[in-house]
């Protein structure tokens, strides 16, 4: 069934779904018990050893007693997907995800500063009586729904905004000058909360545990890495995440097996010679010539050393040195970026960039230091979809939106810090379209004109929830 048709039929049959799911939609806590307690021993998985990350709040909620009968989705069927989609497109969820997205959109916070965003998420989790651990990676949250036992499957959203001034005039425009959710992370958070609501409603169906990861600092590059360091993936055997895409119409889901997004690194080289009068160049050591030779030679790495079938990029984007037209300067600083789709190609580019700069500098009697900002973690490995996890996403997507609305997408040279998770456990990253010409949601991420079609939010929530529940169903 294709998505628009299914959605229409669900809206028409909304009465049916509200009746069917209302009993689980809002579990009412009995008056004499407060099921939420603060319990430091509730954290799933072994305690981390590092003394650095000690102060976790662990809010534990004892699970509600399971309903008496529900053979419902013992074996996954299209009806189960439709049930999830029904919950997602119910007015309550639609309103919830839209409100959350708008609140976060109006109050964007940059990498590792997502305190209010994180608070808003935790308030929602509290309201839904969902257990979580906080903080991981300063503002991150690891929440969980299900049996508390294996298997564990993770779904992830990023929370940070960008240092961009929003240029879209609308009711929920960013209230913070110079900051904007221009990459859809507000929508990603809303979708994951929508999924949490759906999964909580269907908790009695879960044959294991869904871990919800709300991570900081995707744009800064080390949010995912620090989440992993703080135990985000403990016990987790598979992980999934979504990104909105202006390249596909609303309602389309896309992904591909294998390499999806490039590994991305930056380099900065300082080439040092010896300053001197330009009229007598033999008394100086010229770093301009050495740096120029290095730039030319860098172009030979991809064109002469890389397999043409294995896309790679080396771009020099910065070249600075000297400000006196009569002097040869001491140093030239040049830098740029490099991309590749396999770990091997990526690290071999890194190695060759270093060698080429250092050795070209030495041809002209200069020395060179090359920095790849490894400490700052601006190196992202490639995002590689595990074949089986990709296949899982494809199956789920086809059930939700129909075969004609699932697309195998080409790989892209952009990067995503989801790659850090994909290096640790089998992972799949997928897109959900937000393009709508009428609304004007046609701008690329990181544009000040970036707009999303909010109709995507329930579908994103349904995709997350189905991926997680069905994974447990088929691996539990
Ligand atoms: C732990 O967190 C609590 C509440 O946020 C705070 O009062 C306390 O000072 C923190 N302790 C440490 C060791 O950081
Ligand atoms: C990628 O290569 C680097 C450097 O050789 C290595 O440290 C890392 O473990 C590799 N990752 C994977 C997933 O192979
Ligand atoms: C685009 O948005 C408009 C306004 O919300 C809506 O009427 C239309 O159906 C949407 N088009 C698609 C292809 O989703």
TrEMBL record:
* The organism's place on the tree of life at top rank: Eukaryota
GO biological process, alphabetically ordered: auxin metabolic process; jasmonic acid metabolic process
Task: State the family named in the UniProt similarity comment for this chain.
Answer: Belongs to the peptidase M20 family.
GO MF term set: hydrolase activity
Write down a Pfam family by its short name: M20_dimer
Q: What is this protein called?
A: Peptidase M20 dimerisation domain-containing protein
- Give start-end of the signal peptide: 1-27
Annotated Peptidase M20 dimerisation domain ranges read 267-360
Question: What organism is the protein native to?
Answer: Carya illinoinensis (Pecan)
Q: Which UniProt keywords apply?
A: Hydrolase, Manganese, Signal
Which InterPro entries has this protein been placed in?
Answer: Amidohydrolase, Bact_exopeptidase_dim_dom, ILR1-like_Hyd, Peptidase_M20, Peptidase_M20_dimer
């Amino acid at each position: 069934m294709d998505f628009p048709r299914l959605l229409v039929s669900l809206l028409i049959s909304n009465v049916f779904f509200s009746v069917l799911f209302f009993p689980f939609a809002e579990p009412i806590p009995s008056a004499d018990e407060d099921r939420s307690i603060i319990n430091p021993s509730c954290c799933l998985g072994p305690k981390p050893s590092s003394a650095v990350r000690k102060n976790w709040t662990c809010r534990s909620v004892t699970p509600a007693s399971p309903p008496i009968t529900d053979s419902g989705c013992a074996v996954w069927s299209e009806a189960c997907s439709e049930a999830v989609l029904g919950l997602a497109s119910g007015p309550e969820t639609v309103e919830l995800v839209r409100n959350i997205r708008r609140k976060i959109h109006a109050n964007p916070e940059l990498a590792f500063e997502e305190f209010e965003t994180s608070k808003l998420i935790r308030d929602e989790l509290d309201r839904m009586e969902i257990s979580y651990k906080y903080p991981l990676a300063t503002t991150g949250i690891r929440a969980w729904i299900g049996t508390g036992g294996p298997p564990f499957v993770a779904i992830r959203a990023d929370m940070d905004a960008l240092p961009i001034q929003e240029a879209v005039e609308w009711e929920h425009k960013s209230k913070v000058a110079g900051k904007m959710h221009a990459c859809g992370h507000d929508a990603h958070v809303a979708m994951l909360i929508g999924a949490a609501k759906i999964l909580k409603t269907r908790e009695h169906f879960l044959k294991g545990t869904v871990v919800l990861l709300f991570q900081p600092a995707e744009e800064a590059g080390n949010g995912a890495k620090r989440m992993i360091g703080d135990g985000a993936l403990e016990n987790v055997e598979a992980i999934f995440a979504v990104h909105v895409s202006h390249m596909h119409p609303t309602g389309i889901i896309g992904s591909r097996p294998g390499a999806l997004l490039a590994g991305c690194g930056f380099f900065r080289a300082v080439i040092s010679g010896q300053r001197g009068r330009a009229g007598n160049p033999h008394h100086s050591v010229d770093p301009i010539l050495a740096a120029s030779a290095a730039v030319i030679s860098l172009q030979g790495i991809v064109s002469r050393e890389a397999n043409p079938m294995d896309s790679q990029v080396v771009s020099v984007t910065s070249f600075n040195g000297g400000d006196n037209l009569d002097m040869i300067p001491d140093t030239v600083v040049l830098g740029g970026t490099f991309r590749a789709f396999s770990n091997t190609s990526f690290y071999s580019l890194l190695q060759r960039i270093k060698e080429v700069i250092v050795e070209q500098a030495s041809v002209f009697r200069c020395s060179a230091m090359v920095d790849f900002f490894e400490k700052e973690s601006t190196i992202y490995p490639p995002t590689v979809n595990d074949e089986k996890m990709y296949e899982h996403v494809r199956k789920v997507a086809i059930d939700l939106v129909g075969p004609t609305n699932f697309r195998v997408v080409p790989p892209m040279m952009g990067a995503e810090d989801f790659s850090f998770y994909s290096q640790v456990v089998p992972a799949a990253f997928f897109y959900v379209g937000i393009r709508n010409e009428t609304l004007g949601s046609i701008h690329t991420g990181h544009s000040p004109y970036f707009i999303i079609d909010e109709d995507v939010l329930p579908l994103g929530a349904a995709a997350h929830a189905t991926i997680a529940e069905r994974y447990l169903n088929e691996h539990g």
